[in-house]
Amino acid sequence: MGDKLLEVQNLHVSFKTYAGEIKAVRGISFDVEKGECVGIVGESGCGKSVTSQSIMRLLKVPPAVYKQGKILFEGKDLLALKEKDMRAIRGNQISMIFQDPMTSLNPTQKVGKQIMEVLVEHKKLSKKQAYKQAEQMLNLVAMSEPHKRMEQYPHEFSGGMRQRAMIAIALACHPKLMIADEPTTALDVTVQAQILELLQEVQKKVDMSIMLITHDLGVIAKMCDRVIVMYAGQIVEQGLVQEIFEHPTHPYTRGLLKAVPRMDMSRKNALNSIVGTPPDLFAPPKGCAFYARCEEAMKICEEHMPVIQEVGGTHKSACWLHHPMCPIKNRKEEA
Model's pTM, two decimal places? Predict the structure, then answer.
């Protein structure tokens, strides 16, 4: 590791609506290195999926507007590319697995043909070559009787099989980066575990990077090297998985971790919840977006947006509690 495959720099994405402008992503910056798995976690509406679709350039413009920032893939700014050039990258060098495979797969085409289409388009293979390689991809994702599955339609597959088919399509061209947007949401717990293990095995075999979008901290702990925590369109904390789970520094991250059920909890213990609701992104607050829900909020949090700063190693947090002149921090250090 050490080579940056993807760099997102100060990205701002909005949606123009009749009611006004929704500021969905507000100045996020992060990177994904070659061979690593980076997780993006946060509650619904925090900007995770908008971020992933922005990288793939799948957002319809308008109403979506890329207001500011760069998305560099191997040093090339994806936002500056023409659609023709982006199509050569999308599905080839960068691929994506979506939340619901039933709506992502074409119900009128055989699964084999859908895998073949990617190979014919990007690798310029003949139909015979594409058929053989598509069958190999189904075998790679541990699909039983791949030759038989090539001739079946999506409705003939179970949920887990459909997700494996989606992974086979995403892997067909051996991409350098795979974006997995909630890949196990619609699956039961047993199948979820199988899909996650499959992704880990395939990542090692083909040496690719994974960007995993989820709201499940358990999935993050199992899969990822680094984690990015998003709230209200911004990154509030990021670092190695061990750093975040063992020493969360942002009040929002601590709230998320406290809300996770544990094996040592008794029936009498109630799950913790974060009171309140996220801010309205039609008119985001000028200060910290988590201010109204934070038990440790100060006056400065309401008036000024915190900058993301290092709290140790690769660990970064956007919170005024970590400012050198923070009175709460100083009192803790004196104690």
Answer: 0.87
